[in-house]
Design a protein that fits this description.
heterodimer; A: 2 domains; about 0% strand; disordered N terminus
Chain lengths: ~230, ~80
């Protein structure tokens, strides 16, 4: 059964189906291929990435994505717009992936994968950047970080800068990579991510914080190059 | 009166600050610190800029072979529709 659960808390305003969603759903119901291609283009790669969190191989993740789309198409007649279309699609995805993952026996279930990343205690900023314990002003910056926004936009929005950020995201542990991609690239709300990945608000935030922190470090390194 | 945050403590709270999830007293300590701390103000700005630059990225395109298979599945579904 792929319909949404009946007991729904009122949805936060931003995750209720948008006008764009309504048009896409109508087009899908009418069998419009362009609408389908549009949605696959928007979410396909992210769906594959999220599916991969639950199943042991990429090939199985691809099957999960395909199965999800079939579920979406079969259920589209019942989509009521009480959540955004993407939340609804990703809910079907994680349900499908979880079922498949349990059957395939993924070495590490998703919850353990997330827990491992949460247990790993990491400082947000290299401790060497702060005045050491025992000294006056311990825990304060030893030297100030430089603002990014006083750099020219041409440097901030350069292809090299985007490449550095993309590389940093690719290097993240997989759950953090999924969380930052959903939140900061695909525009999911915190609630959407918590629900999709079954994370608590607090854990979602810790994972997002760690991901953003590492991207910030990469950006600082990149933007510091060639600066005296 | 709660003790002041150090910079090293503040950097752990930036996402909660940006997400608006700090409690009233935590938020007050955070904002108090920013009032006099230029370096932390710069750090928070770096985090905001990081979010902005990340947000300008696009997700990768799906492997065309996978996209083609999905399109085939879609056509199959459509044909089966009344």
């Amino acid at each position: 059964m792929l319909a949404m659960p009946e007991t729904e808390a009122p949805m936060p305003e931003e995750s209720v189906a948008s006008r764009d969603d309504v048009a896409l759903v109508a087009a899908l119901r009418a069998g419009d291929e362009a609408a389908f291609t549009e949605l696959v283009g928007r979410y396909g790669a992210l769906m594959l990435r999220v599916a991969r969190l639950y199943v042991p191989t990429r090939a199985i993740a691809e099957e999960v994505v395909q199965e999800t789309w079939l579920g979406v198409l079969r259920g589209i007649g019942r989509f009521e717009g009480r959540s955004s279309l993407k939340t609804w699609v990703f809910r079907i995805l994680t349900n499908t992936a979880q079922t498949r993952g349990a059957r395939e026996g993924r070495t590490l279930p998703f919850s353990a994968l997330a827990q491992r990343e949460l247990d790993n205690d990491e400082a947000s900023v290299d401790p060497d950047r702060f005045i050491p314990q025992g000294e006056r002003w311990a825990g304060y910056w030893a030297s100030s970080p430089r603002r990014f926004d006083d750099l020219p936009e041409s440097r901030l929005a350069s292809a090299e800068t985007f490449a550095a950020v993309k590389h940093a995201i690719d290097e993240l542990p997989e759950v953090q990579r999924a969380v930052i991609t959903m939140r900061d690239i695909a525009g999911f709300t915190a609630e959407d991510v918590c629900e999709t990945l079954a994370l608590s608000q607090g854990n979602q935030r810790v994972l997002l914080h760690r991901a953003r922190t590492k991207v910030r470090q990469a950006l600082e390194r990149h933007l510091g190059e060639g600066v005296a | 009166m709660a003790s002041e945050l150090t910079c090293q403590e503040l950097v752990e709270l930036v996402t909660e600050f940006v997400e608006g999830t700090l409690s009233g007293s935590e938020l007050e300590r955070f904002e108090q610190h920013l009032v006099y701390c230029g370096p932390c103000t710069a750090h928070v700005e770096q985090m905001r800029e990081t979010i902005r630059v990340t947000g300008a990225l696009r997700e990768d395109d799906l492997d065309p072979a996978v996209a083609d298979e999905l399109l085939e599945a879609f056509r199959g579904w459509r044909e089966g529709q009344p």
